[in-house]
Amino acid sequence: MDTPPSTADLAPILADLNQAAERLWLACAPTTPGLVLDVVPEAASTNTALMAQGRRGEVWPTAMVAVRQTAGRGRRGRSWEARPGDTLTFSLGLPLQLDAVPGGGSALSLAVGLALADALDAGLQARHPSHGHAPVPPAIGLKWPNDLWLGTRKLGGILIEATPAPGLTEGQRWVVIGVGLNVQPGAAVSGSAWLPSPAPSLGDVWGWLVPALLQATQAFERQGFAPLQAAYARRDVLLGQPVQLWTSAASLPPAAGAASPGTPQPDETGTAQGVDDSGALLVHTASGLQRWHAGDVSVRPA
Question: If one looks up domain 242-301 in CATH, what number appears?
Answer without folding.
Answer: 2.30.30
